[in-house]
Amino acid sequence: xxxxxxxxxxxxxxxxxxxxxxxxxxxxxxxxxxxxxxxxxxxxxxxxxxxxxxxxxxxxxxxxxxxxxxxxxxxxxxxxxxxxxxxxxxxxxxxxxxxxxxxxxxxxxxxxxxxxxxxxxxxxxxxxxxxxxxxxxxxxxxxxxxxxxxxxxxxxxxxxxxxxxxxxxxxxxxxxxxxxxxxxxxxxxxxxxxxxxxxxxxxxxxxxxxxxxxxxxxxxxxxxxxxxxxxxxxxxxxxxxxxxxxxxxxxxxxxxxxxxxxxxxxxxxxxxxxxxxxxxxxxxxxxxxxxxxxxxxxxxxxxxxxxxxxxxxxxxxxxxxxxxxxxxxxxxxxxxxxxxxxxxxxxxxxxxxxxxxxxxxxxxxxxxxxxxxxx
Length: 375
Ligand code: DAH
Description:
The protein contains twelve helices and ten strands.
């Protein structure tokens, strides 16, 4: 579109002939008219109005003309340049207006659209339930304690009075990260903690009694994932060590917890059991919060929550074994303590009628959404 940059001989005035100047002007006007956008117009400007454009070169040649020709040629070139300038100006205005209009359409924001179409995420109900339980205890003055998930076998078992040949130590229950034989100094390996109870030992070693701690956390066992088992699950551990604590304190504390979680009047009961780290030990059941026992022996009123047993098993508990206190540097003559540990997945199942544990680990929002976004 641009005219070739001829090199002009100063005496050759051909380039300043009226038809030549008109041609240069018309070419410039045509180039501006056909520029489709501001970028193209900028290129046309360089070609037809720049220092090396035909009209600029023609203008330079005026100086070489004889005086009588100068005025006329100057006027002709000046008028042509004026017309080119004007055409450029008006095409710029046109193209800018077009651009502004396009931007207004393309970048329009519909302020009437709803701003929250992205669904808000929610915390997993296991996390919410663990936090809620921890809150019940912190409100009573307990401290939240934590321990590592990759744990020394000593904390997971030995400190808790598991004998070396205790079946829970077997490979079929425990994920060993490092077997005892692989470690220096031999006797203790490294495991994925099988329960939150090692935090009892850690807390007693770190703190001086009185100790009141609650420990929510993740634990591991070599189970296959199915409707009622998962190799990774959650527990909450409770430990109180003080002067003069008894089984009655344990029971009162547990009654308080179940009432906070399941409503006023819910009671608990203890059944004798064995755990190496508590003595005496018990299993704790809570009264079924749905049928309150009315389904027992009553086929007309079956209860799905407790399988018509009237009670739901919660977890293990007992008075801290004096051997554990001693192993952790606490004088069992002066202090006594109670402990309690239970699974969160199980509690979520009976509290919310979740029938399959796999739903909790699959990450499907259709499972988590009905629990709402409790903070
Ligand atoms: N740690 C035990 C388990 O995972 C549960 C347990 C039993 C915890 C008795 C306790 C306790 O604190 O006192 O099976």
